[in-house]
């Protein structure tokens, strides 16, 4: 059996992104667990606002290919107004069942304030609609500016949660998901 390939998508466009720091830590743990890894930094991709009439623009094909190659996908997002970022939403809109169906997905949320649970729940719903298997363990960095310094997570409990997410992305990379859920059967795509 080949080593799993874990791809992380950083849903933050900030240069000093706490989300990117956390995903890098999760990927480090995934690598230590035997996976190959890839960090998709959305700052480096040309992804115009998604238009269903113009799906093959900019770096859309590159994004789709990199996600399609994954056995497990980590989605990391800052919390904006109680949900996930528009940059991540836009990237997800360029993808669909071809890239996500039956894949393992791990979720990571970063907040300037309190616990970012609603953003993670919103992402969990999106992943369910794409017929993914979402890792029950999720990682969150509340009050991120107090737990990240100089590109490192400084809180040992949070660091352990983030590392566990990376390890579980490897452990469950080849899990056989349940039969398609109702949401995925109803969500046939935006073809009309």
From TrEMBL:
The entry sums up its family as follows: Belongs to the SsuE family. Isf subfamily.
Under Gene Ontology molecular function, one entry of this record is: oxidoreductase activity
A matching Pfam family: FMN_red
Biological source species: Halapricum salinum
Q: Which cofactor does it need?
A: [4Fe-4S] cluster
User: What name does this protein carry?
Assistant: NADPH-dependent oxidoreductase
Could you tell me which residue ranges the NADPH-dependent FMN reductase-like domain spans?
5-144
List the InterPro entries hit by this protein, alphabetically: Flavoprotein-like_sf, FMN_Rdtase-like_dom, NAD(P)H-dep_reductase
Q: Which GO terms describe its cellular component?
A: cytosol
